[in-house]
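Hi R.,

Here's the input for the adenosine-5'-triphosphate complex you asked about:
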Amino acid sequence: MNSQNSKKKSTNFIRNIINEDLANGKHSRVITRFPPEPNGYLHIGHAKSICLNFGTAIDYKGSCNLRFDDTNPSKEDIEYVNSIKKDIQWLGFNWDGEVKFSSSYFDIFYKYAEELISKGLSYVCFLSSNQTREYRGTLKEPGKNSPYRDTNIEENLTLFRKMKAGGFKEGECVLRAKIDMSSSFMCMRDPTLYRIRFETHHQTNDNWCIYPMYDFAHCLGDAIEGVTHSLCTLEFQDNRRIYDWLLEHLDEFNKTDRPHQYEFSRLNLEYATTSKRKLKLLVDNNHVTSWNDPRMPTISGLRRRGYTPASIRNFTERVGVSKVNSFTDVSILESSIRDDLNTTAPRSMAVINPIKLVIKNYPEGKIESIKAPVHPQNEEMGTREIFFSREIYIDKEDFTEVQPNNKYKRLAINKEVRLRNAYVVKATRCDSDKDGNIKTVYCTYDPDTLGKNPADGRKVKGVIHFVESSKAISSEFRIYDRLFLESNPAKSDDLSSSINPNSLEIKNGFIEPSLLNAKAEKAYQFEREGYFCRDSESEGLVFNKTVGLRDTWNQ
Ligand code: ATP
Ligand code: MG
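And here is the predicted structure with adenosine-5'-triphosphate in place:
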């Protein structure tokens, strides 16, 4: 994390709060936590929360816990637990001590629930869910007290123990906090603390049939772990009242250094969704192949696409931390990876829409080996071997029979271009198939132009890339577009209506031989084409386009 530490971080309102808390002695050390629910893979929005929680802990020499908020066994899975751990570490962060689970506190939580009941602050309620809704009232009208609100303490304890022992059916009753049915905060109108679920839990198996609600488990988990600053997204703003109420009413936690919750704005990315539920729908309905499909805004999807941890960290830094919800332009994410790869990615050549170029005055059977720089601005990255012969592949887009205007800097009949890292060539004629598609272009080369300008001083403006044909390796290229046509696809609940049907285009072309052993997920710059990395889930040579060389969306 040194690279991150050395950069000056922009300040934010959370850091201001922490500075104050440390200055006035409320806390002597900062402890944060990242609390994912293991009900899906992490996405770019989580990356913001991860960078904020772990990053803040690093900056203040404190610690950050990873705590799985695993209180809903019906939606959770160990596959998600494992992917979340992997993604956090890949982003470059480490949690303090062992991985924590809310479920490992179920015994302690239960004890605190009994404490609340014993204080007359919690009761078992048998209203049906419809009745509960009716009793809750509306934003304009106060709610009504449940008829079970005044059950005596002894009876409540007996009922709650019976709930725990499996003596009631799912949905038959819940444990509620006795707060205020006329509160202007709906969430304070006697919120549910525990519900019955006869489900096997990925950590606690069948030990429990009552499960705590998020609002109960979260503040207690924070307090048990000594978390000082509990950072979450704005939708929990109202719930902060329950957070405070619960800790203030439990003897052990009612003290000045108890944890406090602070809310920041969610990251929303344009043309994407950052809801695990919706991302899961995309997978389940086969709109994408998997959670790590390179089109997904998941951390694993971005990794497979060639994004680097540093680019994602820098992106979250650019987005910043505020209290205003907004949509972030995808181009900010794309420019973060472009900036990183521009300096770090090795250069190479690949021809995505190949046509043959035959160099008529080049000796037949000769193959020339040329040393090309791995990075033209960074000699230290060394050289790679490329080849040149009488027959090479160039991109169809780089040739036109008739030069349209003087701005055209590629190959045309009777025009010259330089082949990157090699010679200057001049096209003479071309062959087309019966449908008029150009198949082969013929040219001559100037043997005296390898690594130097033409001796007679004539100017050759264009440069195109190529791959020598006998050494070329067939490869598949997967070119991605945005997954959605709408900038805010979550506007409608039916995501499928805004899915971009052309978000994946598959092309078959050639790569230079130095790419044969390209490592998966490590991006290269394919000169003039963009950044690409080898796909981690494919057997053969398949390259995913990470991002183009320029922002073509905002032009
Ligand atoms: P989702 O709606 O995708 O399921 P969630 O909030 O339920 O999101 P959690 O697993 O509970 O997902 O999230 C773990 C942490 O990440 C929480 O503290 C949450 O506030 C934060 N988080 C989730 N989504 C975003 C986002 N888009 N931007 C910033 N932080 C987020
Ligand atoms: Mg959540």
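One thing worth noting: Residues 1-6 have pLDDT under 50 and may be disordered.

Cheers,
M.
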